[in-house]
Structure formats: C-alpha cells, structure tokens
Amino acid sequence: MINNKKWTTNSWLEKPAKQLPVYLDHEKNSHVISELSALPSLVEAESIDNLIALLAKACRGEYFFIQSGDCAERFSDCSNYITQRKMLHIFQMGDILSKNLNMPIIYIGRLAGQYSKPRSVESETIHEITLPVYKGDMINCHEFTAAARRHDPERMLTAYQCAKIIIDTLKITPIQNRIYTSHEALHLPYEAALTRYNNKKNKWYNYSTHFPWIGMRTALYGYAHLEYLRGISNPIGIKIGNVNQLSEIKKILSLLNPENVPGRITLIHRFSAHNIQDFLPRLLDEILDSNQKVVWCCDPMHGNTQLVGDIKTRSMEDIINTLFKAVDLHYKFGTTLAGLHLEATHEDVTECITDKTKFQESWLQQNYTSLVDPRLNAKQSFEVVELFSSYYKRFFQKLAFG
Ligand code: PEP
Ligand code: CO
C-alpha cells in the first residue's frame, strides 16, 4: 500500500506526474525553491483546522458553502481594491444562499493562489505559429510570444507575493473568520515549498492556502498529486467528472482520509447537464458503499464547457439544469449537498450564454477577458444562486413536512 511508505514533502517526485511544467534552467529553479521555502506561511494552521471543522458541520447540514472565483487569477489583479470587489461578490452570493437556505455560509474564494492551470493540450497554433499553451500566471505569461510562453520558475515567487497581498486584504474584512482561500494544488514545487511541519500540532500543513483541491486530470491513484496531498492536514477537495474516476474513488479516499475524518474530504462533482443523471448516482453509490464521510459540492461549470467557433462558453440553461439535477439526486440518495462551486466574477463580462436561442457569437466577443474558462458575470451569478437556492429550499420543506 502507498499509505505505509514514508511521506516527505518531496516523495511525490518518485511518482509519475501529469500536467507539471518543465523548467529548463535547473539552477534557477532550485534557487527559487529554496527562497520560497524560507518565506513566511501565508495562512495559519488554526484557520485551516477551523475550516475542517466548519466543513464537517456543512456535511451535517449545518452550514452551506460557496466556493467561487476566476478560472485563472491574474497577477495584475492582486490589488486591495480588486480583492475587495471579488470578496464582496462572494458575500453577495452567500447572502442569497443564506436567505433562501436559512443557513450560515462559509465563504471560499478561488483566490490567492489560483495561478496554475491543467490543460488538455500542450501547444497552441495561431497563424501557423505554434507555442506552448498558457498554464497560468505562476508558470508562464498569456501573451502569444515565445518569450512569454516560456516556463519561468521565478513566477512562483511573484505568485507568493500576489497571494500575500490578497490574504492580507482578506484579514481586514469584517467576517474574516468565515473567509477562506482555495486553489488547485497543481504546481507541486510551489505547494511543497510552502508545506511545513507544525510542532505543536504534530502535523504537516500546506501553508499556501486553506483548501487545496485536486483537479480531475491529476486525481489519479499512484500518481504524484495524490502522493503529495496524502501527507498534509488541510481539508482537500477532489474534482470528479470523469467516469474512469469512479472505479478508483474508494482507494483514493482511503489513501487521503484513512481515519475517515469528517470535513477532510470534499467531493466536487463536475458532471455535465447531460451526464449527471447517469454518473452522479454511480458516484453516490460508491461513496455510500464505502461509508466514507465526505462533504458534497456541485461544480455545474466544468462539465458544461462548449466551443462556439473558437470561443469556450457555457450556457446558463446547462448550468442551472445541472444544479437542479444535483439537488434531485442528492435528495433521492439521502446525501447532503453542502456546497456550490462556481467560476464567476463581479465584472460585466460576456463569457457565458444567457439565452441559447437568442445567442450570437459577436456577443461573446464584446467583453471576454477570462484567460482560460468562461465565468458567470455578476448578474448571471446572482441568478444562478437564486434559482439554485429557491429550488433547493423546497427540498428542505419536503424534509420538514414529509
Ligand atoms: C478548474 O476548476 O478550473 C478545473 C480545471 O477544473 P477540473 O479539474 O474540474 O477540470
Ligand atoms: Co476552470
């Protein structure tokens, strides 16, 4: 069993890895890693433990959580002002949820570290020029030039500095004890450099974020990302959207949560409106059969990406249908849907389609600023949250009145 082998912050290096960038300048890379390892923690062990406790309560239906933000954060957005706008947007969505569900809310941003992206292809061709794909501001630059697309380890230091500015801003918000950061724990050199032992608690923590999650493309048994995650004490999210993941999920859960601690694992299912009816019941069956205590969260975005011409988009209709089906299915299986995961922004972007029938490609081009996946704009996000929570509320009434 992998469980019994000794874990270190670098034991993942001995496993096969997916999605990691290649640095050609090894000397520069190791210099950056030693610098990063000496920098102060970004978050505190106490607040990481608090989040596990809150998520355990969410699992029992006492809290609901909203996890939202950009698909890929930009370094250029790390100002106090933009961070406050982003947080306000999450609070406003939380207010709607709280009012309709009559529950206290846990606020989780895809924030302060969402700087590295898994990609389905390695290169991109425009006008017969082929360059490496953009992999997030921590790895390379979005601009389409050879120099910009080079993987540069020094960007890890900038990522740390940007995350620090954002986290310092969060500390001065009024309900800072219920605001948490999260990002995909994809770029393991960065995550490992910020992973440290806490002598008082006798545990390892990833101090770069409260809530790291593992993406669908890297949640593979026997691979590097799971090896890294099994050793840290943070709550962990696992994205599930691929049918092949179903056969491994029990093994993954016993690897990451051998003691079945409630709040430790959140399963973020990200099926499409079309697939959820088939796949979510299979996932729910696997988990119910395993007796693992997990927190359930629905990401209605990532299964519903479609291409219009060359532009990635998602429709409100698919997003809402996915959420309604998730509510129905969790109710049917007696499991508690405790969280909502969105890619959304406070800005007035034109990235997701509101009305498929009236849709025009030229509309998408008006204000499409996402560097990777399409986000809901403010208006769309409030509508999604309102429709979702009004629908969900009826099920609580069903539970209360039979
Ligand atoms: C994401 O959350 O941006 C993402 C890449 O998700 P997934 O791993 O579910 O595709
Ligand atoms: Co995304």
Notes on the structure:
The mean pLDDT is 95. This protein has helices spanning 26-37, 45-59, 80-101, 146-149, 155-170, 188-193, 224-230, 249-256, 276-290, 316-333, 361-364, 378-401, and strands at residues 64-69, 105-110, 123-126, 129-132, 179-184, 195-198, 203-206, 211-214, 236-240, 265-269, 295-298, 306-308, 311-313, 337-343. Strand 9 (236-240), helix 8 (249-256) and strand 10 (265-269) form a beta-alpha-beta unit. It is of the alpha/beta class. The chain contains twelve helices and 14 strands. The protein has a single domain (11-122, 153-401), classed as TIM Barrel (Alpha-Beta Barrel). The protein has an eight-stranded parallel barrel, surrounded by four helices. The radius of gyration is 20 Å and the shape is globular. It binds phosphoenolpyruvate (PEP) and cobalt (II) ion (CO). Cobalt (II) ion binds at residues 71, 302, 343, 372-373. Residues 71, 118, 215-217, 239, 241, 270, 302, 373 line the site of phosphoenolpyruvate.
Helix content: 25-40%
Question: Main β-sheet, in a few words?
Answer: 8 strands, parallel, barrel
CATH fold-level topology: TIM Barrel
Mean pLDDT value: 95
Please work out how many helical segments DSSP would assign: 12
**Bound ligand species:** phosphoenolpyruvate, cobalt (II) ion
Strand content: 15-25%
Helix/strand class: alpha/beta
Ordered list of secondary-structure elements with their pairings:
Layout: H1 26-37, H2 45-59, E1 64-69, H3 80-101, E2 105-110, E3 123-126, E4 129-132, H4 146-149, H5 155-170, E5 179-184, H6 188-193, E6 195-198, E7 203-206, E8 211-214, H7 224-230, E9 236-240, H8 249-256, E10 265-269, H9 276-290, E11 295-298, E12 306-308, E13 311-313, H10 316-333, E14 337-343, H11 361-364, H12 378-401
Parallel strand pairs: 1-2, 1-14, 2-5, 5-8, 8-9, 9-10, 10-11, 11-14
Antiparallel strand pairs: 3-4, 6-7, 12-13
Helix pairs in contact: 3-5, 3-12, 9-10, 10-12
Bound molecules: phosphoenolpyruvate and cobalt (II) ion.
